[in-house]
Specification:
Elements (H helix, E strand, L loop, with lengths): L8 H33 L4 H50 L2 H7 L1 H25 L2 H16 L4 H45 L1 H6 L3 H27 L1 H24 L5 H43 L20 E9 L9 E9 L3 E6 L5 H6 L9 E6 L2 E2 L5 H5 L2 E4 L8 E2 H5 L9 H10 L3 H5 L8 E2 L8 H15 L3 E5 L7 H14 L4 E5 L3 H4 L4 E6 L2 E6 L1 H7 L1 H10 L2 H12 L1
Parallel strand pairs: 3-10, 3-11, 6-9, 9-10
Antiparallel strand pairs: 1-2, 1-4, 4-5, 7-8, 11-12
Helix pairs in contact: 1-2, 1-5, 1-10, 2-4, 4-6, 4-10, 5-10, 6-8, 6-9, 6-10, 9-10, 14-16, 19-20, 19-21
Length: 581
């Protein structure tokens, strides 16, 4: 993940320089203090004390300046790297197909984009400020300590050995818990998102206690894991205090024993204690980094898993943007099955959908209607066969080239946070084309309810469009597709939330707009598709009938059963009679 540091190499060089100044200034202070004690206080030379004291102030100011500059640069660089990571991760996620989203799960991708990147970012900031300063301080302090009192350096070695022993022990115990903790955070995000999205269903079935119990179980596991990590990590401070105080006592004990032979050892002892403290503090900060880095490495691996994921659906460079005179869609022996599935969801489907005609798909639940039309925009790729758009295999298009041709309305009308205007013009090149926006709203039968909103087209839409009704969401989704003016319209059961009257008016308004376009409609209601030029009847992923309403009601048993389930006996007989006539 350190590759993200490459664009900021100039700041990194200045950061190294600032850390060097800080370390050098800090390391000069104990030696100067030793000189004050040995040459100033003992000899009662006040001038020398003042001179060296001013030098200490100067070095302290220089060191503080280096510390401030290094803190600023490390924070700025770390924040910029965090921003770059989020942007690259978000861009990668946007390029994923539906199957890749399913592989990771939405909740996990959210956690990786937020919690994991925050963990990596905070660790990088610590590394940028500590990773260089700690070795500089430790090595410099050891060199100065050895020069001052070589016979006492074993104290530093002993303190560092004890410190490292406890750090390695703690790390070996907490490392497995870090991965578990991140997975539990994923699950909490999943449960939270699931419950917020399905809140109405939960309340309708009076199942709040059941969902609460599921959340409490996961939350309790997080608490236990976090408590275990916190307990072990909490040992660092008392252990550090114990080692620090023990080192100071040993330095004083050994130093005092030398004073009877050499009075000047007092200054050396005091300076040595400070250098020993700096060495221990350096290793302590290094220990903190050793704790943070494994945790961050878990997060970094999770981020890297997303960034290095090979996309199952790859796009070519062919734009295919030139509009043809008569667009078309052709399915040639298309079969499809989901990853890991044993059986095909779609089997050997072949048909041609022409411009100016509506091709409708109907069948029982699970017959593969939505899966079939989701193959056109390549939300999934066919397992066998091919799909031709304007005579070209969809796999030979660029993403932009193919999507420019398609106006897609999903089964569940989804709106983005923003305004009514921004949602209708979401897929258009000109986000301020008010004429197109109002025409699209009129065709989608949405203008009437929009005119009643407080701010009309500037009225706020919250995330998911939950502040408008299901029918209003569908109409705005249809308006969004119409405003795009595409070659291909795909309506995935997009009229299900509309009443029969609005449904009829909307389809009539769509006819002049779609007269030169291919229209694919998935529907549950026969009334929605009866006027379609071509109806494809699906059963268990296979085509069992293709034709008009009149043709299918005479010869297709599956279509007849669907009609019987939706029409009264008299209405059905009349339909059959009219078809035969």
């Amino acid at each position: 993940m350190l590759r993200f540091l490459k664009p900021y190499w100039k700041q990194a060089i200045v950061l190294v320089f600032a850390i060097g100044i800080q370390a050098w200034g800090t390391l000069r202070l104990p030696t100067l203090m030793s000189e004050i004690v040995n040459r100033g206080i003992v000899a009662e030379d006040h001038g020398f004390i003042l001179f060296v004291g001013l030098k200490m102030v100067l070095w302290a100011v220089i060191s503080a300046g280096g510390a401030l500059l290094s803190a600023y640069l490390s924070a700025r660089t770390g924040s910029a790297i965090g921003r770059d990571m989020r942007e690259e991760l978000f861009k990668k996620i946007l390029s994923f197909s539906i199957s890749e989203i399913d592989d990771f799960s939405t909740a996990s991708l959210i956690t990786r984009t937020t919690n994991d990147i925050s963990t990596v970012q905070s660790t990088l900031i610590m590394m940028l400020s500590m990773m260089l300063r700690v070795p500089m301080m430790a090595i410099g302090a050891i060199v100065e300590a050895v020069a001052l009192a070589p016979d006492m350096t074993w104290i530093i070695a002993l303190a560092v050995a004890v410190l490292l022993f406890f750090v390695i022990l703690i790390l070996s115990l907490v490392m497995p818990k870090f991965m578990l903790y991140q997975k539990l955070i994923d699950k909490v995000n999943l449960l939270t998102r699931e419950n917020l999205t399905g809140l109405r269903v939960i309340r309708a079935f009076n199942n709040e206690k059941y969902e609460q119990k599921k959340f409490e179980e996961t939350n309790a596991k997080i608490m236990k894991t976090d408590f275990f990590i916190s307990k072990l990590m909490g040992l660092e401070t008392p252990l550090m205090t114990l080692i620090f105080n023990g080192t100071s006592l040993l330095c004083i004990w050994i130093g005092i024993s030398h004073l009877e032979f050499d009075a000047s050892y007092l200054g050396k002892m005091m300076a040595f204690m400070q250098y020993a403290t700096q060495v221990i503090l350096s290793f302590f900060f290094l220990a903190i980094l050793f704790v943070m880095i494994p945790r961050a490495s878990v997060s970094a691996k999770r981020i890297d898993e997303v960034l290095k994921t090979k996309q199952k659906i790859t796009w070519k460079d062919m734009k295919g943007d030139d509009r043809v005179i008569e667009p078309s869609i052709e399915f040639k022996d298309v079969s499809f099955k989901y990853a890991g599935a044993d059986e095909d969801v779609i089997s050997n489907v072949s048909f041609v959908a022409k411009a100016g005609e509506t091709t409708a798909f109907i069948g029982s639940t699970g017959s593969g209607k939505s899966t079939l039309i989701n193959l056109v925009p390549r939300f999934y790729d066919v397992t066998e066969g091919k799909i031709l758009v304007d005579g070209i295999d969809v796999r030979d298009y660029s993403s932009k080239g193919l999507m420019k041709k398609i106006g897609y309305v999903p089964q569940k009308g989804f709106l983005f946070s923003g305004t009514v205007k921004s949602n209708i013009l979401f897929g258009t090149e000109n986000a301020d084309d008010e004429k197109r926006m109002k025409e699209a709203a009129e065709i989608a039968q949405a203008s009437e309810f929009i005119s009643k909103l407080p701010d009309k087209y500037e009225s706020k839409i919250v995330e998911g469009g939950i502040n408008v009704s299901g029918g209003q969401r569908q109409r705005l989704s249809i308006a969004r597709a119409v405003a795009k003016n595409p070659e291909i319209y795909i309506f995935d059961d997009a009229f299900s939330a509309l009443d029969m009257k609005t449904d009829k008016k909307l389809r009539e308004a769509l006819k002049p707009v779609t007269k030169n376009s291919v229209v694919l409609i998935v529907a549950q209601r026969v009334s929605t598709i009866r006027d379609a030029e071509q109806i494809v009847v699906l059963d268990k992923g296979k085509v069992v009938g293709i034709g008009t309403h009149a043709e299918l009601i005479k010869k297709c048993k599956v279509y007849q059963e669907i009609c019987k389930s939706q029409l009264s006996e008299d209405e059905y007989r009349k339909e059959v009679s009219d078809a035969r006539a």
